[in-house]
Amino acid sequence: MKLNDLKDNKGARKERMRVGRGIGSGKGKTAGRGVKGQKSRSGVSGIRAYEGGQMPLYMRLPKRGFNKPNAAKYVEVNIGRLQAAVDAGKLDAGKPVNAEALIEAGVIRRALDGVRLLGVGELKAKLDLQVVHASASAKAAVEKAGGSVALTKAEKTPD
User: 155, CA 20 to 30 Å: which among 50, 60, 103, 127?
Assistant: First the structure.
């Protein structure tokens, strides 16, 4: 098998039908749209939701929930990822670990509105963490390893 021998299976790719290109193509003249009426014309897309004056289905169904327009966006970091950074020598366990230290170590790309610490993985290093939020399991794992978790106030970034 060589790279120049590679090809798709028969029927794996289907060529686009060029409509309106003569009677012999089978899709000439009306291009498969039938004759006359709104649906045969171009620029008709919203007609699918119209139900002849009856209340449309998307309006009949109940609406639930609420999307907070200015909800804070946090960067989630697992304790296993912190341990991997300490093991690789990118994160100094002696200094306090905050968003700036995590960016410098390459653990996160940007801080957004703050760092949220999650408890997936295992932590052996003694770390003094400064985060906006920490799950109960993450907090317990850090304290078990001899470290501490200090919660700071979220900094809302301008959008």
Answer: 127
Same domain for 50 and 80: no
* Residue 40 clears pLDDT 80, i.e. is over it: yes
Full domain range(s) for residue 93: 75-151
Are the C-beta atoms of 37 and 119 separated by less than 8 Å?
Answer: no
Query: In terms of domains, do 54 and 95 share one?
Result: no
Residue 125: CATH number of its domain: 3.100.10.10
Residue 47, burial from CB neighbour count under 10 angstroms (0-12, 13-18, 19+): exposed
- The reported pTM is 0.61
Which of these, 133, 130, 132, lies nearest to 154 by C-alpha position? Answer: 132
pLDDT of 159 > 60? The answer is no
Give CA separation, 61 vs 10, 21, 45, in Å: 44, 43, 22
Number of domains in the chain: 2
